[in-house]
Request: fold
Amino acid sequence: MEEQKTTAGQGLGVAGLVVGILAAILALIPCIGWIAIIPGVIALALSLVAFSQANKGNGSKGVIIGALVVSIIAISIGLIQIFLVATIASKGGHIINKIEKVAREFEDEFEGEYGKDFEEAMEDVEKSMEKIDDDLEKTMEKLEEDMEEVSDRFEELSDEEKAGKIGKAAGRALKEFLEEMKDTTDIK
Reply:
C-alpha cells in the first residue's frame, strides 16, 4: 500500500520560494544585485527547513526543491556581482590611469602638431564654421537674386531659345565639373 503525501513543510517551502524569487529578481539588478545574497540565504534556510519537515512527514517536495534551486541561483548571481565589483574596483584605478595617460599623450601630440591646445583648436574650428556659414548664407542670397533675374529674362524667350540656353548651361556645368575632377584626381 502506498503512503499518502502530507502537507508537511509546504508552508515554509512556499515562503522559501517567494523569498527566493524576490532575491533572484533583486540579483538581476546591476550594481546592487549583491544585496540579493541576504534574502537568498533566508530563502535557502526556509527551503532547507521545509525539506527536512517534508522528509520527516512524508510531504510533497516539488515546491520545496524549486525554492532551493531559485534561492541557490539568486545567491550565485549575487556572489558573481560581488566578484565583478571587486575586480573592477581593484583594476579600476589602473584603467583610469591608463585612460588619463592616453589622453595626455593625445593632447601633447596634438599641441605639438597644431601649435595650440585642443580647446583652442576647437574654438578656431568654430570660428571657421561661423565664417563658412555666413559666406554660404550670402552666396545663397546672391544665388536667389540671380535666379529671380534669370527667371524673369527666361520667361521672355521662346521654347527653342529656352532649350538652347538650358543645353548650353548644362554643357558648361558638366565641363566645369570634369575640370574640377581632373584637378582633384590623377585621372587624365
User: Anything to note?
Assistant: The CA atoms of residues 173 and 179 lie 10 Å apart.
